[in-house]
Amino acid sequence: MSLIDDYWDIEDNVSALEAVRKSGRGQEFEIYRSLIAKGRVLLPYLSAEGIAFGPSRFLGYKDNTVAKHAKREHRNGRETTPRIRQVLAQEFGFTTWNTSDAVANDHFLRFCSALDVKPDDVARTFWITPEIGDWLADNSADARGATSENTERNKSLEDEVRGNMSLPETTRNSMIKARVGQGLFRRRVLQAYDKCLITGLAEHRLLVASHIKPWRDCRHDPKQCLNPNNALLLSPTWDALFDKGFVSFSDKGRLLLSERLQKKSRLALGVEDLRVALTEGQASYMSHHRLLHKFEDAL
Fold first, then answer.
1. Which residue windows does the record flag with biased composition (Basic and acidic residues) (predicted)?
2. What's the rounded Cα separation, in Å, for the pair 124 and 98?
């Protein structure tokens, strides 16, 4: 059995899984339940009943069925996982890695419970596609955070992204939500950093996922627009200071204060000598922010 060629092959395999799941009985259904229970690398997808999950070792083989899979002697996640990564990158325009995800895992356990399945006690990873990332973010208790206002200029830029037919609709929708720090972008940033870079505040409902290279300058490229490396997780005050160019950072994380920031405001912040731990990825984007807000002379 050969590996999948494209996203259509994944969708065909999902349809095969769904047909057996919906049957709810028979030998193939028992095989399906076993596949789910043993799943370690899983692709979540949306069904009529909500979120569902397909194992990587099933989805990665072309024209797969539950019956074929049960008879197959060679089933190797080391070949299906890289292939699924390639196919998802081709489909959505950026690389998606299978990673641990506490929220997705909670949904997986509820999915198993509905099937009356006891999943293996193993570490699991999940492929979070744009559609699933947005769904999980919208169904999360800390989904909102602060957002910026929706100006006519921003609406025009969103319409431009919406009309970019070179990208799948799900990717475009995620990119539009990313403008206000929501959806898949917010989930990725929260997972990457967990707390405010400066204050250490870890109350997710109060934090803002903010682009380093502004959304308007990376809106054509999902590899930048949805990338947590191109982001800081900040409390609202620090987000406003960074977004408006009153503060920036050197590549090594030294806080830079704009000359436009009033002296009393500098004193109120009380952080003249602050240094933060930027990742290498964040530092690679920070030069754009410094150049945009004329901080280069401050280095």
1. 150-162
2. 9
Residues 59-84 have pLDDT tens digits of 999 999 999 888 876 777 789 999 99
Q: Under a CB-based contact definition with an 8 Å cutoff, are residues 42 and 55 in contact?
A: yes
Closest C-alpha among 22, 54, 19 to residue 40: 54
Place 254 in a pLDDT band, splitting at 50, 70 and 90.
very high
The pLDDT of residue 148 = 46
Listed residue (211, 269, 262, 213) closest to 238, CA to CA: 269
Burial of 47 (0-12, 13-18, 19+ CB in 10 A): middle
Are the CB atoms for 21 and 32 separated by under 8 Å? yes
In whole angstroms, what is the distance from residue 98 CA to residue 83 CA?
12
Instruction: State how far the Cα of 42 lies from the Cα of 32, in Å rounded to an integer.
Output: 14
Spatial distance between the Cα atoms of 294 and 258, rounded to a whole number of angstroms: 9
Q: What are 232's strand-pairing partners?
A: 210
Chain segment 202-213, per-residue pLDDT in tens: 999 999 999 999
Q: Which backbone phi and psi does 208 adopt, to 5 degrees?
A: -115, 130
CA 219 – CA 191 distance, rounded (Å): 22
| Amino acid symbol at 106 | D
User: Position 3: which residue type?
Assistant: L
C-alpha to C-alpha distance for 127 and 137, rounded to whole angstroms: 15
Using DSSP, state whether 43 is helix, strand or coil: strand
The domain ranges of the chain are: 7-128, 145-298
- 3-state SS class at 256: strand
Question: To which H or E segment does residue 52 belong?
Answer: strand 50-55
The model's pTM is 0.73
Question: Quick one: angle between helices 7-23 and 27-38, nearest 10?
Answer: 120
Instruction: Return the DSSP state at 53.
Output: E
Query: In the structure, what pLDDT confidence band is assigned to residue 46 with cuts at 50, 70 and 90?
Result: very high
CB 246 within 8 A of CB 292: no
